[in-house]
């Protein structure tokens, strides 16, 4: 992890009529950092992420992603990031190979690069025997790991993961986090939202959103010390009670 900030956010706000979904949040994320964006369902995590990846315009505030302004350079942001949505993002009616080729084309990779990356990715994930099978026939855990790998095809500076381990078994969750560590060690910044508080322990730093606001932000170790608890889930519970 370097000292270079690849995400810079200042008082970013999103309102829908009289409802404020994201309320003046500020933070920065460094290159190669695993940054956990935590909170209960409905806390505003996904709304905030949509602003950061350039698909939802903020109501107010400022943010730069990989050096690009969220208001002026949304298309440049999309070219420099990877994204894995809360719902499985690949196409069930295409094979594993076809999905990789399709998204490689969207990312602007040449046929030669797509072929090389496809071979490497399929072997690395242990999908050789199912490479020509429809993705819809794969177990959820394999789908999630494939989707994450595809989001990294174009070597993005930042990858945004929205609830990536929802619904998968504990073993697959652990394997998925091993993939996250590998990406971060290779210099990719990982911005991950989750409502699994135990996953906060895997992050370099975490922010905790409650009702659209960031109520805490630090390393897991420092947050547990600050709130005098042993587990991140207890940090969240204390924050939730305090802000009720």
From TrEMBL:
Molecular function terms from GO: ATP binding; ATP hydrolysis activity
SUPFAM superfamilies: P-loop containing nucleoside triphosphate hydrolases
GO cellular component terms given for this protein: membrane
Pfam families found in the cross-reference section: ABC_tran
Keywords: ATP-binding, Membrane, Nucleotide-binding, Transmembrane, Transmembrane helix, Transport
InterPro entries according to UniProt: AAA+_ATPase, ABC_transporter-like_ATP-bd, P-loop_NTPase
Protein's cellular compartments: Membrane
Predominant location category: membrane
Record-annotated ABC transporter domain positions: 7-236
Protein name as catalogued: ABC-2 type transport system ATP-binding protein
Organism of origin: Formosa algae
């Amino acid at each position: 992890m370097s000292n270079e900030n690849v995400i810079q956010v200042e008082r970013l706000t999103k309102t829908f009529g009289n409802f404020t979904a994201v309320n003046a949040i500020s933070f920065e994320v460094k290159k190669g950092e695993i940054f956990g964006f935590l909170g209960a369902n409905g806390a505003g995590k996904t709304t905030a992420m949509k602003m950061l990846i350039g698909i939802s315009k903020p109501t107010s505030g400022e943010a730069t992603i990989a050096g690009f302004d969220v208001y002026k350079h949304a298309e440049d942001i999309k070219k420099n990031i990877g994204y894995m949505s809360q719902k499985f993002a690949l196409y069930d009616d295409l094979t594993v190979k076809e999905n990789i080729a399709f998204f490689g084309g969207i990312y602007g990779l040449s046929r030669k690069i797509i072929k090389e990356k496809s071979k490497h990715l399929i072997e690395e994930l242990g999908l050789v025997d199912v490479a020509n099978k429809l993705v819809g026939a794969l177990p959820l855990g394999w789908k999630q790991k494939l989707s994450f790998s595809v989001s990294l095809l174009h070597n993005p500076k930042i990858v945004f993961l929205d609830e990536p381990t929802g619904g998968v078994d504990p073993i697959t969750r652990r394997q998925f986090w091993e993939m996250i560590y590998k990406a971060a060690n290779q210099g990719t910044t990982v911005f991950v939202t989750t409502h699994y508080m135990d996953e906060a322990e895997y992050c370099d730093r975490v922010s905790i959103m409650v009702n659209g606001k960031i109520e805490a932000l630090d390393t897991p170790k420092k947050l547990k010390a600050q709130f005098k608890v042993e587990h991140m889930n207890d940090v969240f519970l204390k924050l939730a009670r305090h802000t009720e």
